[in-house]
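Board work, copied verbatim: DUF247 domain-containing protein
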Amino acid sequence: MESGIDRLIQSVKEELQISYAFSDTCCIYKVPERLRELNEKAYTPRLVSIGPIHHCNDKLKAMEDHKRMYLQEFIARTKVSVEGFIELIKEKETRLRNCYEETNWFSSENFIKMILMDAVFVIMFLLKYNCRKSTEFTGSRDSIFYPPYKWFDVRVDICLLENQLPFFILEELCGLSTILGNSPKPTLIELTHGFFSNEWGSWAVGEYWGKIDFSEVKHLVDFLTIYHRPTEQQQHEELEVLTAPSVKELHQAGVKFVLSSSKNLLDIKFDRNKGRLEFPRLQLEDGTEIIIRNMQAFEQCHGLGSGYVGDYICLMGLFLGASKDVEILVENRIIDNWLLSKEEVVKLFHSLNIENLVSPDGFFFEGLIKDLNAFRERPWNKRKANLKQNYFNTPWAAVSVSGAVILLILTIIQSVCPILEVV
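↓ predict structure ↓
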């Protein structure tokens, strides 16, 4: 008779035969709870589920009918049968599953059906969005682009880390179809760029996007991070303490704030000789926090190493500690603030810096911080700035001070001349 210990040994051996190892191609994650609890709405879809993580959310089931409508239209417009699309996804099933942390609860049939429905929905949404001014890809039945205009919520939902599909399957489905219009038909990368550049302003680098390599883009959140990869390799220097003056303190030290011509948010540069700090324009609106948080979460989960999204959040948090700091950057057209107030900007970056992972060792803006700290500590810069800001801040003040100096000089001359005559 088998003893209890023998059954336990056999059970453990059977468990060990099951492989639970994560794939090295995993790129779509559940947001860590320590981030989610800071602002759950920033990571949770409101209207549509994409992929397996939120597939069973009853609140999102209403959009399943819309997915079926888009699939019908997709098939009607293409020369490929539904069997062809299913066969393609079946061939890629293992690769697709490996992109997610877990998909074990999905049968093969349900997984393939979900990927097909969701992938077609994303493709059709991007296509209709880019063609929304024409009637070719829209119709009265489409409540996303006609009343009640659900596209406004969909545009946010497809940018959430937990709501992603691997980009390669979207490209391959597009490659099988002729739905993308007449020759030359736009690529999925072009459609995605068209969406981001119209909807998310300063988060989509526009003027040189054609030079950016999207060949290995993992999903739409990764698409956004690729826009802002550093254009130059930074010389890493050791920082004893990760701290920097606020914008107001830099202003008081004589730093001039200049709007950069670059659209890459990381291109913040300081000219030590001229005391010029250049920033690319940062547009802040209601959806900005969601975009930043999901880029931040992807960076932390995926272990990108460079950590430049987190480093940017940290730097802006150091700069913007009070409403006066925001006011200075708004006045210099560096921040385009569509939030309710300057205080909301301060709160935004304070909140983003909670659970933000950065390290003084290898911080992307190390050199910039060291230069700014050194400039601020120079006594002459402080005195010169104080003189300019307090006594020459308006034309009339400058005239008054100049007049007083001239009067003082004349008084001294008047006093000295009689003495010289006596001598």
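The chain has three domains: 18-227, 247-377, 389-416.
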